[in-house]
């Protein structure tokens, strides 16, 4: 019996047979649920488990969906001696195979925490405290990777990075705009006027949060692998920290901003503790973190806006996307409040 491929990877069985020698009769492909961007599939066969990643169906909205580039990022990380990545297996640039470029990597087994503790599982405050510490240690490790010999340095243009990001994400917001959200527009103007004069350089992930970490298990929050490298580049590490802070929801935050990261249960660091811990191990000056945090919230809002625009145009049918406009609004309000109160 030949398995039927899920939507987005139709007719891939002959390719898998020809490149990896996977027998179609004993290979099963299912799509991972829960993501908001690129599509990810689990390939299970008698020869092992693999993961396939491809761009979303329909409208292409940014370079974040460049699967060939993400594959090269994984290869460069391997060369840099960074071990917390799934092993890249192959990359296919031929769009005739499934309609878009894609790549395949080995699957890393472990615990991935989404926005809710898995049913029947108990995670202690001590677990989350260690996870917070491990998460920031992992971010610091990335920011200190060697750039030149590994080839990682060729993946970005650090000079002028912060300004390009502010201008670029502002343009993306207005290009994807559907509703009048004065807070988002006000934050965009503020960011343009408060770009820091100093620039830092390091390798950055740009989407570093709990649900992109594969952990050892419920009794051990050690990080086995970091996932989703589509936005990784060379730029200012504090922009990376700002994005992680934007996802770092606390107990008192609006519920809608808790849907992306399980950082609000007891035991987790607060955002101020994240900044203090990062600063204790980094030579970078953190006196302008308000800017980087506000930018992170704005960027998260723009990402949600872009996905919502795709949904409103009919390019995506996931019912979760219908509510993302409320995420955009909440990000704008949170960022503006932080700017006005000068509190993170």
TrEMBL record:
InterPro entries: ACAD10-like, ACAD10_11_N, Aminoglycoside_PTrfase, Kinase-like_dom_sf, Ser/Thr_kinase_AS. Residues 29-261 form the Aminoglycoside phosphotransferase domain. It holds the Pfam family APH. It comes from the Bacteria. Signal peptide: none annotated. Transmembrane segments: none annotated. This is Phosphotransferase family protein.
């Amino acid at each position: 019996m030949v398995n039927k491929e899920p939507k987005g990877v139709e007719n891939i069985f002959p390719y898998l047979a020809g490149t990896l020698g996977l027998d179609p009769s004993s290979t099963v492909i299912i799509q991972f649920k829960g993501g908001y961007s690129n599509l990810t599939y689990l390939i299970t066969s008698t020869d092992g488990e693999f993961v396939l990643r491809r761009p979303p169906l329909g409208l292409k909205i940014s370079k974040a969906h460049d699967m060939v580039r993400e594959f090269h990022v994984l290869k460069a990380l391997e060369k840099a001696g960074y071990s917390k990545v799934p092993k890249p297996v192959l990359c296919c640039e031929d769009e005739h195979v499934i309609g878009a470029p894609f790549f395949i990597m080995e699957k890393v087994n472990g615990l991935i925490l989404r926005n809710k503790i898995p049913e029947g599982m108990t995670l202690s405050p001590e677990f989350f405290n260690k996870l917070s510490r491990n998460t920031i240690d992992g971010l610091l490790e990335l920011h200190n990777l060697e750039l030149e010999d590994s080839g990682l340095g060729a993946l970005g243009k650090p000079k002028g990075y912060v300004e390009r990001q502010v201008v670029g994400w502002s343009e993306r917001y207005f290009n994807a705009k559907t509703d009048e959200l004065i807070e988002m527009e006000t934050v965009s103007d503020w960011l343009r006027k408060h770009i820091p004069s100093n620039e830092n350089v390091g390798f950055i992930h740009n989407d570093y949060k709990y649900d992109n970490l594969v952990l050892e298990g419920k009794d051990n929050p050690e990080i086995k692998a970091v996932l989703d490298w589509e936005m990784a580049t060379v730029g200012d590490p504090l922009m990376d920290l700002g994005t992680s802070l934007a996802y770092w929801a606390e107990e008192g935050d609006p519920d809608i901003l808790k849907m992306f990261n399980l950082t609000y249960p007891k035991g987790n660091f607060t955002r101020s503790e994240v900044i203090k811990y990062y600063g204790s191990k980094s030579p970078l000056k953190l006196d302008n973190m308000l800017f980087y945090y506000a930018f992170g919230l704005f960027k998260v809002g723009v990402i949600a806006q872009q996905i919502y625009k795709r949904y409103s145009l009919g390019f995506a049918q996931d019912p979760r996307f219908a509510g993302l406009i409320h995420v955009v609004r909440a990000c704008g309000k949170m960022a503006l409040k932080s700017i006005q109160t000068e509190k993170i």
